[in-house]
Design goal:
Distance between the termini: 67 Å
Mean pLDDT: 77
Number of strands: 4
Oligomer: single chain
Strand content: 15-25%
Radius of gyration: 19 Å
Low-confidence stretches: 14-24, 28-42
Order of helices and strands: HHEHEEHE
Structural class: alpha+beta
Strand order of the largest sheet: 2-3-1-4
Number of domains: 1
Shape: globular
Helix content: 40-55%
Number of helices: 4
Largest sheet: 4 strands, antiparallel
CATH class: Alpha Beta
CATH architecture: 2-Layer Sandwich
CATH topology: Alpha-Beta Plaits
């Protein structure tokens, strides 16, 4: 009887550990660099974006849960119609609505609030 319980207990502990570590996320960028990287070197942070789309490069995303977190934060912004995330390249393509478009600062804050590092925002 003890022989069957021991492997089950070990399996339970391993499974619990994996769940705990996955809940912590898969962020690879240190938090200390986040504010500096997200907010520097962007011109006109407070003006509404004029184009109908932007491409952002975001570091630290490594799984679908990461992408979902960024997607949810961006779609909560007024003026964001849709977001498409490529985990391999870290590119986030954001489609903007015709009115009430967000500013670069709002996009940067949404990425930062989702727990990742914004490298740059590109407009066509």
């Amino acid at each position: 009887m003890k022989r069957t319980r021991m492997p089950l207990m070990t399996a339970g502990l391993l499974t619990g550990s994996l769940v705990l570590f996955s809940a912590a996320g898969c962020e690879t960028t240190p938090r200390a660099d986040r504010d500096h990287a997200s907010m520097n070197d962007m011109n006109d942070m407070n003006g509404a974006i004029e184009g109908s789309s932007v491409t952002m490069v975001v570091h630290g995303m490594g799984c679908p849960l990461c992408a979902n977190n960024v997607d949810r934060q961006l779609k909560a912004l007024p003026g964001v119609r849709d977001a498409s995330i490529d985990l391999g390249s870290g590119e986030v393509k954001v489609q903007l609505a015709g009115e009430n478009r967000p500013t670069r600062a709002q996009l940067a804050r949404a990425v930062q609030d989702s727990g990742f590092t914004l490298v740059r925002i590109e407009t066509p």
